[in-house]
Write a structure and sequence with these properties.
0% strand, 164 residues, disordered C terminus, single chain
Length: 164
């Protein structure tokens, strides 16, 4: 398949031959002149088309360069996106690990708080039962034993004296 430039050159060559033939031939008629004019017009159209073709070819080349640049940029953005996604996934993993650790600590804290509360309740029950026992014992022990009891257990004795 011939390119426009090749066709243009062939047409110019043919036109040049015809012009020479017209000059050399004294018997040229109007039909040959019309054909020559048509050929000249055709050559001008082909030259215009060739010029437009070259302009379009340059535009396409520029667009191809632009597209190539965009594709490179797209690839870079996709790589950056993958790296960011990896970072986000790592952060999510770290956050979930820390959440699990916090939940473990909170569970331990609540268990410890329950244990302390139950010990306090047990201590209160034991203390209140001791007071009740002493309230019943002291009046029957008499003052003589109560003073000895105060020496041995001064705080409890003080409580007993307050209750009496």
């Amino acid at each position: 398949m011939l390119t426009l430039e090749t066709q243009s050159l062939e047409t110019k060559t043919l036109l040049t031959k015809r012009k020479r033939d017209q000059k050399d031939s004294p018997h040229s008629d109007n039909s040959k002149k019309l054909k020559t004019d048509e050929l000249e017009e055709s050559v001008k159209k082909k030259q215009i088309m060739t010029g437009e073709y070259e302009k379009l070819k340059a535009i396409v080349a520029d667009k191809e360069v632009y597209i190539t640049e965009l594709l490179k940029e797209k690839t870079q953005v996709e790589e950056q996106l993958k790296e960011n996604q990896i970072i986000i996934d790592n952060f999510k993993t770290t956050v979930s690990e820390k959440d699990a650790y916090i939940s473990k600590l909170l569970k331990g804290k609540s268990q410890e708080q329950e244990r302390i509360t139950s010990q306090e309740e047990q201590s209160i029950k034991e203390t209140s039962s001791v007071e009740v026992q002493f309230n019943y014992l002291i009046p029957s022990m008499g003052k003589r034993y109560a003073s000895k009891f105060e020496l041995i257990f001064p705080k409890i004795g003080f409580l007993m004296l307050l209750k009496n």
